[in-house]
Amino acid sequence: MTTAPIEPPQRLVSSLSGDPSGPAGEWLAALPTLVQQRLDAWQLTLERVQTPGGRSSLLALVRQPDGTPAALKLPVPGRVPAQEGAALEAWDGFGAARLLRTDEASGALLLERLQGAVSLRSLPEAKALLEAAGTVRRLWVPAAAGHPFETLAGRTDEAVRALRAAGTLTRSADPLVEQAAELRRALPDGCDEQFLLHGAFRQGKVLAGERTPWLAVGPAPVVGERAFDLAALVLDRFEDLMAGSGAGAAARRRVARLADSLEVDRDRLRDWTLYRAVDTGVREVAAGARQQGELLLEFAAWL
Prior knowledge:
Mean pLDDT: 91
Low-confidence stretches: none
CATH superfamily of the largest domain: Aminoglycoside phosphotransferase (APH), C-terminal lobe
Distance between the termini: 55 Å
Helix content: 40-55%
CATH class of the largest domain: Alpha Beta
CATH topology of the largest domain: Aminoglycoside 3'-phosphotransferase, Chain: A, domain 2
Structural class: alpha+beta
Strand content: 15-25%
Shape: globular
Radius of gyration: 20 Å
CATH architecture of the largest domain: Alpha-Beta Complex
Number of helices: 11
Largest sheet: 5 strands, antiparallel
């Protein structure tokens, strides 16, 4: 039995507005029915749909038959990694939200409920970085033989093409784009690490929990070296660094501090950070967020 209307959040609707008659648009139109089907099949009571929510999934706060709170997630088909559930299952609640149930047909995930309004971004910067580093360390487990996940090496050609295409489209910082593309092509061959990574780690992806203070959510799992995950943490709240004096030196110190604390090679972390800053920067410019994108490119140039 539902206790609240099933209405997709406006942020999700807006993100799919470019494909009203395509698969994503059809999924959006059917979403209230899909949610109701999961509620009925798993005997869940809907409390409310989480807003503003994300751009690639709907998250609903629900109660299980015994009254235990949980979160029901339905991803947009083709918009998020299909292996999210597999990664959460591999972590089994260690450092990440616990996976309770899955439905292969719809991609639905029933998850341990966390405090969605309280992320690491609510903490002072130094404390947030410390807690984030401790959380991501827990997620880095060796990939099992025959794992179902993509690898950084396997994504290389696609990643390089996408970066160069975005750089051409935006005509942004050509030398930096080329440098980042070459780093992306070379980096996977320079390290034999095969860890299961979060893939989209940042402070906003770490939420307050009940059984443990902080747990990660929303992975885009990939297998490769730890420096790839850690690079996103270097970039977190980079605006705070840029607002202070000696910003370039502060950025390089952050790389060194995080690398040393998590026993990651400094040079490889710097290179992955440069790549991820440029990649994110040109995408931001292409999406119309020129100021944010140009700040990221400036940050990359300091490295």
